[in-house]
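Researcher: Next sequence.
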Amino acid sequence: MYKVAIVDDDRIIRKGLASTIPWEENGYCLVGEAADGEEGIRLIEKFCPQVVISDIKMPFMDGLEMGRMAKNKYPDIKIILLTGYDDFAYAQEAIKLRAFDYLLKPVDKEKLLEKVRIASAEWEQEKKIKEKMNEGMPFFKHVFLKKLLSRQFSPAELRQEAASLGIALSGEYFAVLLVKLDSYLAMPGIAAKTAEKEFLKQSVLSVCQKVLTDSSLPDCAFELPGDELVMLCAGNAAAGESEEGARCLAEQVRAAVKEFLQETVTITYGKGHRGIAGIAVSYQEANLAMSFRHFVGKDKVFSVLELPSFTNHNSVSFASRERELIQTVKLGSKKEALAVLQNLKTEILHCPRISLEEVRFFTVQMIFVLFQGVQELVPDWIVSQRENVCGYYNTIHRLQTIEEIVNLAETIVSGLADFIIRQREEQRCPAVVEAMRYITQNYNKKGLSLQDIAQHVHMNPFYISALFKQEKNITFSEYLLQTRMKKAMELLRCHNMKAYEVAECVGYGNPEYFSVCFKKYTGVSPVDFKKGANSKDG
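Model: Next structure:
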């Protein structure tokens, strides 16, 4: 039902309109009556009627003044004015007030009811239009934002359109903040994740809007395509103060996103510029700063003025670094291979001309060339990595900073170098590798001896002993002791076992001898070691 209120100082007329017109039968709820404009305002504020029927001439506050106040607060309200005078001056006032209509007294009840029907129908139509406008508001705001950032429209045009969209562009100086969602592009593009990405973007937008509101600034935060949002920092402070205000605002947004959403954002900002035309300039500055995010890193706030100084390197020596990397990996020199990547990273970070896309492209190429270079050396490893190749490509193209890309390259190179080192050790002396494997599987046998190992690998005891010492730089006895003691420490630390039980499990028939060996190896007795382990757990 639509709500109707009646305001008239003439009690007879007021009661007559209330009682003689079948309001409910016609789909209306009469929410109340008032005897003057002041009472009428209170009635309107309490019930928010869609239609108000009011006399013009009343004591304390007349209908015109009441109508003006009501329209200011409730622009959609429909006011039908009643007057006993066919006075053109009243008609003019009613037009100024944007009253829906006015009728002469005595009021024809059928005519009044018809006016109320038309008024409520118009209110309903306006409501639907407004709902459709609200549904399309993100689109209209996006179009407006493109105009605002393009420098192709006059300040007067921009202010007029902003007002029509309910966007406050008040202030003398403007600085633009560009907000990039750090994890947005890292999310897979499947449908479920797409919805999750958009939810994240809307959540960050809400945080931006709240920070603006809490800072008593106009709510000027908009979405850009993809993983970015734009905020306007408007105020009357001079340019330098505007920039400081923009930085402070950016830090608040970054902290709030981390606190409430457990996500990170990178925010850049332009300088403060005077007038609406300066918004586009400030945006270009913020956008330029954001193009250096792959140098500066994620979860940061910075402007172009704060970018690190670059040397005058003309280019990065990708080809030579690639050759160095392949050579060091082939040699199994893991430390040197990782140093090559770090040197490459340093070169990139001091070269302002290189784009993120170039870094991604080279890294993918480097990995493929590296795999080709070691294919003959480690064919089994290459086969095991075939399924990961596409994964590496997709992952690299989702990474947003040089730090992340180099870290992934280090992980791949480390895995490959470790495999080459292990393979080289195994190929160097298979007999020693087999001896080590046999010890690992049989250390718990009492009386395990060099003779047992030699028999297992079909070699002379003295020869296998010499090989073992040569390859591992420790004797067979030392390696067996090391294996048994490590297992004993594990059992004492993680299991509720007595020292003699542990001795039995690791191949010692004599608990006292086990205790002597354990103390010599660790510096403490088995009992004291267990007490120390338990106290740390406690």
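Model: The longest strand covers residues 173-181. The chain has four domains: 2-127, 151-306, 318-426, 430-537.
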